[in-house]
Amino acid sequence: MPELPEVVVTLRGVVPHILGKDVQAVVVRESRLRWPVSPGLSEQLCGMPLLEGRQRGKYLLFRFPQGHLMIHLGMSGSLRIVTADTPAAKHDHVDICFTDDTVLRYSDPRRFGSILWVEGPPEQHARLCQLGPEPFAPDFNGDYLYRLSRGRSVAVKAFLMDNRVVVGAGNIYANESLFLSGIRPMLAVGKVSRQRLESLAEQVRQVLGKAIEQGGTTLRDFVGGDGKPGYFKQQLLVYGRGGLPCLRCQTVLREIRLGQRSTVYCPRCQR
Ligand SMILES: [Zn+2]
Which residues line ion ligand 1, judged by CB < 5 Å? Predict the structure, then answer.
């Protein structure tokens, strides 16, 4: 499933190829995504230049003069750049075609993604207005986590994975950053000290930053071909390693279910 790093890298991979270009046509081969593709996209976009591409949480926001195209990759969505003569494959549902024959192509086998047209500030859209800060924003820090978590008994891992707290800490990244900051995932978040939460915020940034950096080596995968951009595999310290020895202390890593998600931790390194 595409996580925040894949979204950031997708943007870096596709935006330079289409920025400032005018849309010539929009081809919707399949509109039944998680929500129907906004009708009338062609009328909204044709003749309009792409002014900017940015990301908020896992949403890609493409700014045009009259509004934003808001794309979510869902479980299996991907975007790539092809030329107008590249035949569409089975799951290539939407093309945004530009006047120089560059095409931004959306592919999604499971169709859990979405492509919506938003007028007005997208940050106020129902899907975005509740989101917590971006992990790399200055307002995501130990003080913020401390203030938000006092009196809460929810497990620190579930808290971290809540989009309203911070965006981008998906299951893999939550497991890894809790290990790196030495915090046991099932601890009540309200009991975790300010100092440890500061470390947690820093490790979330480190882990996501590393994933983005590694993904940067795949940028050329976003252009051409019929392949789908590969999602990058990081070297993981705990996720997927339940029952194996901790890479730091050799203690056997424990795997439990926490909020239905696989949770792996080291009973010695994480307290
Ligand atoms: Zn350990």
Answer: 246, 248-249, 251, 266, 268-269
163 phi-psi bin (left φ>0, alpha ψ -120 to 50, beta other): alpha
Return the closest-CA partner of residue 9 out of 214, 201, 161: 214
C-alpha 241/C-alpha 255 separation (Å) is 8
Cβ-defined contacts of 101-106 (< 8 Å, 24+): 102/17, 102/18, 102/21, 104/14, 104/17, 104/18, 104/79, 104/80, 105/79, 105/80, 105/81, 106/71, 106/77, 106/78, 106/79
Nearest one of 173, 156, 161 to 240, comparing CA atoms: 173
80-124 pLDDT tens trace: 999 999 999 999 999 999 999 999 999 999 999 999 999 999 999
In the set 5, 6, 56, 58, the catalytic residue is: 58
pTM of the model: 0.93
100: left (phi over 0), alpha (psi -120 to 50) or beta: alpha
* Ligand 1 geometric centre to CA of 207 (Å): 18
Q: Is 2 a catalytic residue?
A: yes
pLDDT, tens digit, 9 for 90 and up, residues 65-90: 999 999 999 999 999 999 999 999 99
Helix locations, 123-193, DSSP H: 142-149, 156-161, 171-180
Q: d(Cα 196, Cα 50) in Å, to the nearest integer?
A: 43
> Which residue among 3, 5, 122, 241 is the active-site one?
3
90 counts as catalytic: no
